[in-house]
Amino acid sequence: MRCHLLHLEEEEEEEEQDPLAVNYGEVPLPDLQSVLVRGRAQAIRAVGKKMAFVAVRERGFTVQCVVTEQEGSVSRQMVKFVASLNRESIVDVRGTLTLPSSPMKGASQPSPPSPINLEDAARSEAEIEKALQLVRVNQDARLNFRVLDIRTPANQGIFRIQSQVGNAVLVILRLFEIHTPKLIAGSSEGGSAVFKLDYKGRPTCLAQSPQLHKQMSICGDFGRVFEIGPVFRAEDSYTQRHLCEFTGLDVEMEIKKYYFEVMDIMDQLFVAMFDSLNVSCKKELEAIGRQYPFEPLKYLRKTLRLTFQEGFQMLKDAGVEIDPLGDLNTEVERKLGQLILEKYGTEFYILRHYPLAVRPFYTMLCYDNPAYSNSFDVFSRGEEIISGAQRVHVPEFLTKRAESCGIDVKTIETYIDSFRYGAPPHGGFGAGLERVVMLFCGLNNIRKTSLFPRDPLRISPREDLVVMVL
Amino acid sequence: MRCHLLHLEEEEEEEEQDPLAVNYGEVPLPDLQSVLVRGRAQAIRAVGKKMAFVAVRERGFTVQCVVTEQEGSVSRQMVKFVASLNRESIVDVRGTLTLPSSPMKGASQPSPPSPINLEDAARSEAEIEKALQLVRVNQDARLNFRVLDIRTPANQGIFRIQSQVGNAVLVILRLFEIHTPKLIAGSSEGGSAVFKLDYKGRPTCLAQSPQLHKQMSICGDFGRVFEIGPVFRAEDSYTQRHLCEFTGLDVEMEIKKYYFEVMDIMDQLFVAMFDSLNVSCKKELEAIGRQYPFEPLKYLRKTLRLTFQEGFQMLKDAGVEIDPLGDLNTEVERKLGQLILEKYGTEFYILRHYPLAVRPFYTMLCYDNPAYSNSFDVFSRGEEIISGAQRVHVPEFLTKRAESCGIDVKTIETYIDSFRYGAPPHGGFGAGLERVVMLFCGLNNIRKTSLFPRDPLRISPREDLVVMVL
């Protein structure tokens, strides 16, 4: 066996010259030899001075390696070198593969240099509760050492699934992908939840959504578009389900006849996406479930569509009284989710035809009942993950709607002007990628599905790179 | 023929009641009738008071419609209504499809309400120069009325191709897609080219590249990752090839043996992408070429790889003397591109093994000649579009490199710390999506390939939406 150590934290002590030194040690950096296994030293154990075990992990898989003193190839110093490896070091191992006579029972190391022990970080609550002496790695420690944390099987699974969700949008829908600007001129009088910056003396802010530009793309005859990109909300939200930067998944499209077409696209996309995740990410879902147990999301072949009024009635029948023209709060949404699961056997459904009063002024109203709107929300496990609607595409009518909502029309001239040169009927929807993944996997905190989450208390790691990028 | 007008700028004058009014007019908004053609009124012409022609465009295609006074179905008022349509209005037309006895020769309208005439916006320079009375729509007017401008066949082609480039990255590489944060804590002492903002009293800036986070993903054992997302540079660049916000296309990957693996992935990706664009976007490329004539990009099945020294020698042989350990300027790059095209018949090639002194400190040096680095640039039509390298993954060595480049190591602690818990050898590359498309299509200005370009003089349209988004 040869062991090439690519990464070593501490300097080795001065030692006697080893005539077999050529068989191990630090690799001359760029000139790697042919190798059999490269992975991380997950656990290291010495047995006396003549033998050492190393469990080498390469993503989900582990190989047990053993080095034994042997004249002419393995020196005692080599055994010592191996036994003193730091956990999580990357090692190259060339050796003979055999079935172990007995499984490796344990491994220990006096002072692990890594601030998070991966075995601790990968345990489920149930395991931790069963054995009281185990370390619980809290969310903050995980995020402080995210490069270590994201190596756990559950995290590898979560971000593989996140990646697959993005792929699915592209592969299933085959729409026109756009990239809209995030730097937006404007002093943003109205919004406190906006990130403001100054660019050459002009007030500028960060886009809170691609709403304006995706609608402009439709006015530019792009037909059907989607965008996956960052969305910025400077909100003071300290909940388990809000971030101040997240990944927006936005669709906008021409409508031929009715806003049901938008729901059809959403339906087709998400059912196909869930199907594909269940098939292609089976192992990832299992890995997540081992640490964070959850039941697979229950969804129907064709997504259930209830009107807001039907939802209202179900709640009323269950003794929950709400304003028939008001919005649902989080608690009521969860209750409705529960009622719908019991009655229809699905945790994924559409609530459509929302009261006009609780939707943005640019939402198209229902032709036959202007107290309601051509809009919908989509729920997963009782929480809203998607919001969609037909938009008002006629500038004169948009102006009227803004006025009747008490908006100073002068402040939204750019938006209204976008529809002055002929705008087709259109609609769309927006989802948050992190929330979609969180609720598909039944996770309890959106920070678990954001690679480097940003919230009002965390905008790190720091950016050192401003001095580095050429 | 029925004509449903969905959008009308000016109020109609008061007129006598039309008994056939039911056969035309504005559509009750959400309740559209079954239609045959929906498109834009591109050109309108009245022939006396009894007949009118309308050319209706749906993306690339045009249908000529004719309405003639006819007792019981078409009134004179209807003909007048059609003749007074605004250009670029969206119309629904139900009628009988026939071959025209003679082609529509012209169309006129006294005062087009749309600030850009699409026929003007779609003309090539050659056409404009041939006929001096034609209007030239300049770049600024185009960007001021981008919703109109992007309807030209060339622009429809450009953004379809941009969309396909993104698809290609995903479909060809099948890597792990990540979404890294754009909000980065830090006061960014070193960089003037950074957008700064203040978030709850903490200095924050916008990511200039996903460099740190994509490398952290590799340290987190993600293997091979890519990201397509916005990149922000507050530079004072007023060139044809710089934007202050563009779409970065970034790849980062573990290296098994040598940095050639990174070039292999780049090579495989771009050759397959160019092949796929040439096949699947044939019509789009033709549409672009009609307005902005260009020769197809010349590239080889396996991308040519020259060392910096070979490039140096070619330039020297052609009488161009440069510093053998310095960088190439834009002019020299173009000259080298020309020499390589003549000698090797390709406009797409890799120049590798750059002098270490002209690359960022985190670039891995060549093991056998530390004056050079394991890095490369890729050129398309004589301009750099991709920059890549192996990175230094050993924190102690990274510290030394930073010091020898005169960087205060304290300011880049976060970056160096990311490699302390075991980092595999790795490398990657970054490209700008807009520049890739610009040079593939031989365009002369990067604003042509950015949907809503941002440069030091333009951060508009304004953001009205801060008051609108719920």
Automatic annotation (TrEMBL), chains A, B:
UniProt keywords, alphabetically: Aminoacyl-tRNA synthetase, ATP-binding, Cytoplasm, Ligase, Nucleotide-binding, Protein biosynthesis
Subcellular location as annotated: Cytoplasm
Domain Aminoacyl-transfer RNA synthetases class-II family profile, residue spans: 224-453
Source species taxonomy: Eukaryota, Viridiplantae, Streptophyta, Embryophyta, Tracheophyta
CC terms in the record's Gene Ontology section: cytoplasm
Catalytic activity: tRNA(Asp) + L-aspartate + ATP = L-aspartyl-tRNA(Asp) + AMP + diphosphate
InterPro entries on file: Aa-tRNA-synt_II (IPR004364), aa-tRNA-synth_II (IPR006195), aa-tRNA-synth_II/BPL/LPL (IPR045864), Asp-tRNA_synthase_2 (IPR004523), Asp/Asn-tRNA-synth_IIb (IPR002312), NA-bd_OB-fold (IPR012340)
Principal EC category: ligase
Protein name: aspartate--tRNA ligase
